[in-house]
Amino acid sequence: MAKRKARSNENGGRDPKSRRGVVSPEEIKPKTTDMHWGYDKENGPQTWGHHYPEANGPRQSPIDIDPSSAKFDVILANNPLVINYQTEHNLNVENNGHSYKADIKEESTISGGPLGSSKYKLVQFHFHWGRDDKCGSEHTLKGKMYPGELHLVHYNAEKYKSFTEAVTQPDGLAVIGVFLKVGTIDHEGFKVLSDNASKVKCKAFKTETGLDLNPNNLLPENVTNYWTYEGSLTTPPCCESVQWIVLKDPISVSPEQIRALRNLCCDENGSKRIIENFRPPLPLGERELRSSFQL
Ligand SMILES: [Zn+2]
């Protein structure tokens, strides 16, 4: 196994336990980026709209996907997604207190399908999951949840200089959603992630895995069948800037692999698990749900 960097946190690597009993005002006050939101009753999805008004908007995600109501679009069928992902060397993984996330350093892009000729650059991917196999995905399929969902987040590099610039623009982002189901055997591509999850058990922990991963290895074999619609980020500030591409085929991980996600914690001491981190579906409303394939 390659050398790994020591755990670090937002306090520059100091162990939060060593400061136990000494509470400064900075510690009582939540950090701006984390203020007000989580997945508990008091700060969960039902409350996000109070502090992030866009969460009450007409173009929110996730949604329930009813395949029979999706409109087959022949243009999508004739212009498949072009996924050009590069291998990430020494993949970095992180627990941000809300999810398990990997940042992308390489020039990995997608285009085609609903994105046309514009290139969208991959910036990070992360996961959503639930307390057991009955829940966890954000998008649902005719009301059914999968045990998890992977989100590969891209920004429109053709029009915008950075993710930050793109995140507020209606054509700023594209996210590929991949459902996770639980089978009996390990998913090879997911192994780098599940094997390293325990090293970032607490919020704000990051680690270099020392391992390579091509994000392609997290996709199902068939990427030609998907649903697409105009939506939003599923976490605050819930910006309405995402072209969603939800793949029809799930990937399959083992029970141990999904447990690695469920063992992550949302606090800096590792005493509170991220039991679930999915936002329930919101109305499709006036929006159109298109599919690249015929039923
Ligand atoms: Zn997500």
Automatic annotation (TrEMBL):
Main location: secreted
Domain Alpha-carbonic anhydrase, residue spans: 35-293
Catalytic reactions of this protein: hydrogencarbonate + H(+) = CO2 + H2O
One GO cellular component term noted in the UniProt record for this chain: cytoplasm
Enzyme class, UniProt record, top EC level: lyase
Gene Ontology molecular-function annotations: carbonate dehydratase activity; zinc ion binding
Region (Disordered): 1-66
Stretches with biased composition (Basic and acidic residues): 26-43
Names of the cofactor(s): Zn(2+)
Keywords, alphabetical: Calcium, Extracellular matrix, Glycoprotein, Lyase, Metal-binding, Repeat, Secreted, Zinc
EC code: 4.2.1.1
Compartment(s) where it occurs, according to its Swiss-Prot or TrEMBL record: Secreted, Extracellular space, Extracellular matrix
Family according to the record: Belongs to the alpha-carbonic anhydrase family.
Function: Reversible hydration of carbon dioxide.
Record protein name field: Carbonic anhydrase
UniProt source species: Biomphalaria glabrata
Gene from which this protein is expressed: LOC106062110
